[in-house]
Amino acid sequence: MSKDENKKGPPGGQEPPPDENQIIAERRGKLKALRAQGSAYPNDFRRDALAAELHQAHDAKTVEEIESAPTSVAVAGRMMLKRVMGKASFATLQDMSGRIQLYVTNDHAGTEAHDAFKHWDLGDIVGARGTLFKTRTGELTVKVTDLRMLSKALRPLPEKFHGLTAIASRAGDA
Question: Is the pLDDT reported for residue 174 higher than 50?
């Protein structure tokens, strides 16, 4: 046997895409669990800022300027990226104006909210309240004190780099 025959998966080394029906079924299960806990689609969250407005108003400020005058904000949007690192997590939220980073920790948001956040999926609509700060890399971020899921995404986000492959689909003839 050659080395290539010992490899698992399809030829060429690419992993097969996850089955969309399986993903949707898993997400429906998560939605069912949310419904069992109470309202799965709360409509009482009110954002008071858009990502672009926050960047425009605070990107030019230094870390010291932002820390000396804490700014409380409430933002909402689709979770596009999520990085979980034990007791702290980062997420990128996209609203109609742009993107802003969230910083979720057990200390600020609470253990229960952070544990729930770890099980949320990309594409979910999230509402977050907190104060602005800048990370070590200089990215404007919301240090989350209150975090809520506003709407569960049942379908996965489209693959970023692959797009449509069927020419008929692109042309709208399908």
Answer: no
